[in-house]
Amino acid sequence: MLCILVTLAVGGIGWAQEFNCKITLMHEKITGVDPQMFTTMQKAFNEFFNSQKWASDEFTPAEKIDCNILINLTSGNVNGDPDSYDGTMSIQATRPVYNTTYTSTLINYLDRDITFHYALGNTLHFDDNQVAGTDAMASNITAIFGYYAYLMLALDYDSFAPEGGTAFLKKAQNVVSSAPDYKGITGWKSAENTRNRFWLVDQLLNNRFGEVRSFWYTMHREGLDSMSQKPADSRSRILANLKRLYNVNRENPGSILLQFVFNAKSDEFLHLLAQAPKQERGQYITLLTAMDVPNASKYNSYR
């Protein structure tokens, strides 16, 4: 079984990096494997993700991004390899709101295309210049971690400055274009479907969807971060800008990016509606129900 070259705890890399990330591994559906394997795997994943240097900027402890990643292993023995697994990955991340104890969700997403190899004794390595490594199945899990690390950083930076996360989105796109390629590995290619890692970062960087990133900045920096000082104005600013999302959705119906935004923000939109004067809600509810059909009944309850 091929081990991946380790870079953990080398070159001064420590725990004070960009994330406070808790990675949890669920393995109840996997039988015939020593449970110690999954304890070791979970520990290795946490150490790798939190120790890796993902950005050139230095982060203070208060600036680190809080995130939770849940990996649910659904089957083993992939491609006849007893140390390879299929599963799903749920990613959640938040950023603090200025002058409050409230945290705003940046990402709340379920990735169903998780396939990787991990065996006792394996170590983890990620390099932007060699994403696929020398063993595609073993490198796929670190490529996925790298992709979502860059995506979370991009969304965080975009929330503080207009298009502030572009460099990280390009790093995520590089992971996609250089991703491991092997039988059973999915999620990286445009031809597979229209709702995978390829299309998510592609749309974030596509000018057709530029208003989504503009809205993202407005909602966080010009809206939520001002809420403690000017709640009514901040709320109105966010709700009034929903039209920008609506226009994107009208031109790109069913896009993964709009679904991705609403997965993260629907609860906040509901909270903003509840605070808005009843006579003002109708126009915003009309926009939201057209864009976020799964939550339409929740929005309509505030009419």
Strand content: 15-25%
Number of β-strand runs: 4
Read across the widest sheet, the strand sequence of neighbours is 1-2-3-4
What's the helix-strand series? EHEEEHHHHHHHHH
Write the layout of secondary structure elements.
Elements: E1 19-26, H1 35-51, E2 65-78, E3 81-96, E4 103-117, H2 136-158, H3 166-177, H4 197-205, H5 210-223, H6 231-240, H7 242-251, H8 256-275, H9 278-291, H10 296-300
Parallel strand pairs: 1-2
Antiparallel strand pairs: 2-3, 3-4
In short:
The chain has helices spanning 35-51, 136-158, 166-177, 197-205, 210-223, 231-240, 242-251, 256-275, 278-291, 296-300, and strands spanning 19-26, 65-78, 81-96, 103-117.
